[in-house]
Each structure stands twice: as C-alpha cells, then as structure tokens.
Backbone:
C-alpha cells in the first residue's frame, strides 16, 4: 500500500511537470541538456563507484559474463552517455511543428500541431546507459519520464539519475521532470502499469519475457518489439557477390542485436551456385547452420537439419536457419508467417521482384539490396534512438524524437456555431 | 473452448485477408464500395425485418425508449448508411502515399510509405449503422475488420453484414475480408481481446463502462475516448455577444453528444455582465444549471450549487456546470484537471490569451472563438469519422481514413553493408 502511494505520487508529479515541460523553449531545453552532460561527466567517479557495487552483487549472484558485460560501465561508456546528451541537444526540436493546416467551409482554420506525449514510462533491463539516453530524449521532446530499470543495475541507475536530476533542480524545473522508481520491489511494475490516469505511454526495453509481461499487465498504451527475426532473401536475379556480402554482414557483424539476420532464404535456381561458397564463409566465421532438406543436399559441409521452430527463433547468436524457396512469393509468405515484422531484405537486380517484396512483406523496414543491420535511428539519420517498434500503431521501426510526440488541433474561429 | 476456436479462426482468416487487401487498387476498392451500397439498398426489406425482431426483443426486455431509438432503423437511416458507403468510395485512398523520403550518407534511399494497419476489431453497442460505416472505412483503408456489436442489435447487424458480405463473395475477395462475431455469448469479447497475434487495433465505441472494460482486458492496442467533458471559457476580453451564441450552441444544439459543453467558465470581471442574460437563455431552453458560489450570487434565477463531482461529469443532457474564475490561467488549470482532453474553447478578442490557451490546454481540439461542437470528422473536412480519440498515441481527435493507416519504411540500396 505504501509503495502504491509512493509510485502514484511520482506519477502525479510527473503529470504536473509535463504541463510545464510541454511549453519550454528549445534553447532552454538544449542549454539544460548540455549542463546535464557536463554534470554527468563531473560525477563520473560516483557513477563508477555505484556501478562497482552492482557488478560485485551480480558476480556474487553468479550472473553470466554476458549479463555483467551489459551492466558494466567504464570511462568510455560514460563518455558515450555524455556525448549522447550533447547530440540530443543539437537535434531539431519536434515540438511546436505545424504538421498540417487547412481551412474548412465553416471558416475555421485548423492547425495540426506537434506536441509532447506527456508522461512516458520506460521499463528496461540491465544496461545503465538507458537511464541517461532516455532522460535526454524524453526531456528534449518535452515529456516527463519515469524510469524503472533492472534491479541489478539500481545503484548505477540512481547515480546517473542523481547527476542529471541535480541539473533539473538547479534550473528550477518542476519536481517530477525526471523520475526513477528506486526500489527492487517487483510489485513496482504492476503498480506503475495501472496508472493510466497519469502515464500516457510505456516503452519496455529488454528481452521477450519482459515485453510480454508488460503487454499483459499494462492499461497504458505500450510500444514495443518482441523479437527481431530478420530475413535476407537471395532472389534468382540477385548479384550473388552482393548477396554474399549482405548476408554475411547481416548475420556476422553483430549477431546479438535485433536487426541481425536469423533466417536466410535462397531461390532454388541459384541455390547450387550460391550456397556452397556462402556456407563455407559462414563456417569460417563460426556460424552454425540449420538447413532445410535442399540446403543439406547442396551443402558440402555437414550441417544440422532445421526444425520448424528454428525459423521462429531469434538466436541472437552465431546460428542461422537456411531455406531454399521456389519463388519470391514463397519467400514473402515465409517471412510474413515466420518473421517478426522487424527488418527483411531482398537481394535482386529485378525491379518487379523488388517492388513486390517491398509491397507485400509486412515489416517495419523492408530493404532492397542492403543489410538488415541498417535498421537503427542513427543509421536512418534520426540522430538518436529510443527503441525500434514492430507494432503498427503510433510508431513503426526506429523511434526517435518525433515518435515521442503526439499532436493537437489548434482551431481559430470567428464566432462559428454549428447548425 | 469451441467459441475460442471459432473466434481464433475468424481472426486468422482476417489476418490472411489483410495481406491481399493491403495491395488492392483504389479503383477496385471504390467499385466494390459502390456495389456494397447498392446491395445494402436492395436488401433494405431484409434489414428492416431483422431490425423489427431486435426492437421487439428490446421492448420485451423493457429497455429504455432512448435505447430503442438508437437501435431502430428506418428508410432514412438505411439511406444514410448507403450514402455513407458511397461517400467513402469518393474519398482519397491514403494507402501508398509517400509520407517522406530521404537519403542517408550510406547511400540508402529511405521511403516512409503509408500502409494499412492490418486487422481492426470494432466493439460497439446498440447503433446498427456502425456495422456499415466501419466496414466501409476499414475496407477503403485496406484493413480487414472484425465486428462485435451489441447483442441487442445482433439480428440487425447480421442482416447489414450479409448484404455487404455478398459483395465481398461475388468479387472473390478473400474470406475474412469482413467479419462479424455472431453470438450473444459475452465471453466472445474476452477471447477476441487476447488475440494480439492476429489483431492490430481495437476501437471500442460506446459508453464509458464498455471502454473501461475493453482497456482493462485488451492485449491489443486500443484507441478510445472515455468521456467528453468539454469546456467553454469566456474571457474578460470576450465579445460577450459571440460568447453567448457559442456557449448556447455548445450546450443546447445536441446535448447528448461527446463534443457538447458540460462546464462553462467565466472570467470574474465579466461574470456580472454576462451571466444573467446567458442563464436566462439557458433556462428558456430547459437547461439545468449547477453553479459555483459566485454564480449563485450573480444569478437572478434559482439554481443548484455545483459539487466538485459536477465538474467531472459528462451529463450528455441539458445540465451545465458553471464556474467563475479569476484568470485565463485558472481556467486552463481547471480544464486540465477536470476535463477529459476532448474539446475546449476560449472566447476572447485577446491574442495573447488565445495563444496561451491553445498552448496550455492539453486537449485533442482547442478552439478560439468557436463552438466545441465542431469536433467531428466531417466538420474537419476528413469526409468521414470512425471515432474521436482522447488518447495521445497514434491518433488524437477525429479519426478517419488516415488514422486507420500505419506506415512502413521501404529502403533501396545498392549493396550496402554496415561497418
């Protein structure tokens, strides 16, 4: 009960703060972001000290090395947070933009204007840098933010938060401008997700289990991506050299991320020419292949047979499912059935096949002749990224400042009444 | 269990159909919409016969006359559905529109393209015309639709649905293009709202209880408006003649709808001049007033005292809460605290006060010198309306065809890989 009161109070303060933040001038916000960056830099030692505590606890709890790597901060990672905040200060402020304006026969002048969403809650797992990144993006877009990080990184998150909140206080911004739920109590999420009277949007960032939990519990709109099961389809009209480079990049360059390729599809007419060399390169890079019967037949390596479940799995690792298909249409059907609507590519020199693939693959980002690894706010030229959405409502694909805004209609009349 | 299987099958078919619908040409969709209109007209007798059954059952169940009025169809109401479908056929198809396009330094060409959302479920109450209206809008925007109407109008809904579905079948559109949950079993909604693997969006249309239920149960994104607690604020710089006309229109012209005024706020410096005449006009129109202490003092009529709860109530009736405020800022604070973020207006000749009101009132539609009654897809020039959103995600204010779309990124490369 006490916790519920506490969290409700935080949410109510965040809502109050959001009223002020929505009307802050861009130059004010930018000046404060620069101060935040400077103060975070100045508080480096405190942050690293707090992080050491978290790491010690993680080691004592026998958490995996991969987990500890995500949790660990060092000079370089703090420097990245600092330059992230400075980068956000330099981005164009989306708030106040006139999206559209028109007159209607009644004489009303309707202006569709970009405004902040209001209060955004971010629920994330182990990476402490999310704390600074999300505060920067939410603040720049005029939203107040409530952070709920993983309990394993709580000390690190609090230290980062304090460095930024000191700037909020120094500048007399309203209390509740930025907020952190500083408890390890797992009930906190359940409480937070019911506060739809105060919070406008929840963005969960983490593994599938977290995202499913948030979706199931939340009464607040959620934007999310469950999985990144990305495909590259090598068409019979592909430049096979290009296809080899794209497939290799999509799988190997950073296999742990959501825009890495998990399944490779090849048109049967080029499979015999393409697969042996490709699979050899993958083998050299340590990629385990799970192939369809035709792949097994063509391959000169000894490879595992793919089960149906392999085509539905986000390995996030050096494992790849491979399937030979009879047509671009079969590739499209496979991707829509087994994929996660994230990022999928065709490699082809045929314009009709390109256009059909772009139209019919139901994914956030559909590529012709490029690696799926480009699905990223920075690579898209958005200057930042708060997540990637595989939903279709509000935001789809890489989300940055603009996706953290809503709009309102401002309407000028001269005494109009409705007949 | 049988019901769950049935509804899941409907949702799966809807998803399959949506793949085809998303790529239908505009002229095809328009031709089919015209055929739907004609067939609905042709099936008029069947629809009216089915409606008679529903009305008889409603009377037997002693449902209110207001309820039966919403349920009842006649020649005129069928004609409105028919012309609604023809109107949607004439609207511009939003699907395929290029929203934005840009190049990035890697050489990728990024196109942000408007696409259908996919599968939309509409959960509604007694008005059978929603069946035809929603089918028309969903079909035109390339979405498949699953309808779940009120059990009291089931016969009417099925008759309308059949008239339109015959056209779907005749034109060999995929099964699942339009769908109706034709059961009175209340479990159907619970099942439907868990099918987030198939359904992309739920739009509930009805009273607050329905909308709260849908929001609490759904794992699918919901767009909704709970209430319409709309305000008109009469500023000390108002043209009081204009203010009287606007307030009268906002309250009296159609008190049962969501964009009607529920609370009127008046600057104290003009209250003594404005209120007596205004309240007299309201009295003549049968409006019951509930006023703040100052209103009671100024008024020459005998009026009720407003309780705090009155300012939070959507009367949908000839009842009005009235409050005298000390400043535009107090009006803004009152609206943001007690309102429902739907539609609010200021009447003033002062540009600063106008701009402050437009910026700070956190509502979907904010008016200067016009009645709140204009919040409507048709009045906004959108040509249609599937609902009004008081949410801030995806769509805010009147929703028409464009709000039934999402987007995807279509990206053209020439062999790019990520370094």
Residues:
């Amino acid at each position: 009960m006490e916790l519920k009161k506490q969290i409700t109070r935080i949410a109510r303060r965040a809502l109050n703060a959001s009223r002020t933040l929505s009307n802050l001038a861009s130059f004010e916000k930018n000046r404060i972001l620069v101060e935040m960056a400077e103060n975070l830099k100045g508080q480096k030692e405190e942050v690293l000290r707090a992080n050491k505590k978290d790491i010690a606890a993680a080691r004592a709890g026998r958490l995996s090395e991969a987990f500890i790597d995500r949790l660990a901060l060092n000079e370089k990672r703090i420097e990245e947070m600092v330059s992230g905040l400075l980068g956000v200060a330099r981005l164009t402020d989306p708030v106040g933009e006139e999206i559209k304006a028109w007159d209607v026969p009644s004489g009303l002048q309707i202006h569709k204007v970009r405004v902040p969403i209001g209060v955004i809650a971010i629920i994330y797992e182990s990476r402490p840098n999310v704390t600074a990144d999300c505060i920067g993006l939410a603040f720049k877009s005029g939203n107040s933010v409530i952070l709920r990080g993983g309990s394993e990184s709580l000390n690190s998150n609090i230290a980062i938060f304090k460095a930024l909140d000191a700037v909020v206080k120094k500048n007399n911004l309203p209390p509740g401008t930025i907020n952190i739920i500083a408890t390890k109590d797992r009930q906190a999420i359940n409480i937070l997700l019911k506060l739809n009277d105060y919070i406008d949007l929840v963005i969960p960032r983490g593994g599938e289990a977290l995202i499913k939990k948030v979706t199931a519990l939340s009464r607040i709109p959620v934007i999310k991506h469950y999985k990144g099961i990305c495909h590259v389809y090598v068409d019979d009209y592909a430049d096979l050299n290009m296809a080899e480079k794209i497939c290799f990049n999509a799988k190997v360059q950073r296999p742990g991320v959501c825009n890495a390729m998990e399944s490779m599809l090849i048109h049967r007419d080029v499979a015999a020419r393409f697969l042996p060399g490709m699979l050899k390169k993958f083998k050299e890079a340590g990629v385990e292949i799970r192939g369809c019967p035709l792949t097994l037949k063509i391959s000169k390596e000894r490879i595992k047979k793919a089960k149906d479940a392999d085509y539905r799995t986000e390995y996030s690792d050096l494992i790849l499912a491979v399937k030979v298909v009879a047509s671009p249409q079969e590739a499209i059907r496979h991707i829509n059935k087994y994929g996660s609507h994230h990022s999928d590519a065709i490699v082809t020199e045929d314009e009709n096949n390109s256009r059909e693939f772009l139209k019919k693959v139901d994914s956030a980002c559909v590529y012709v002749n490029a690696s799926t690894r480009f699905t990223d706010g920075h690579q898209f030229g958005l200057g930042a990224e708060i997540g990637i959405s595989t939903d279709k409502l509000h935001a789809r694909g890489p989300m940055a400042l603009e996706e953290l805004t809503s709009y309102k209609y401002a309407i000028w009349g001269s005494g109009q009444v409705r007949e």
Chain B has 14 helices and 16 strands. Chain B touches chain A through 67 residues (CB under 8 Å). The mean pLDDT of chain B is 96.
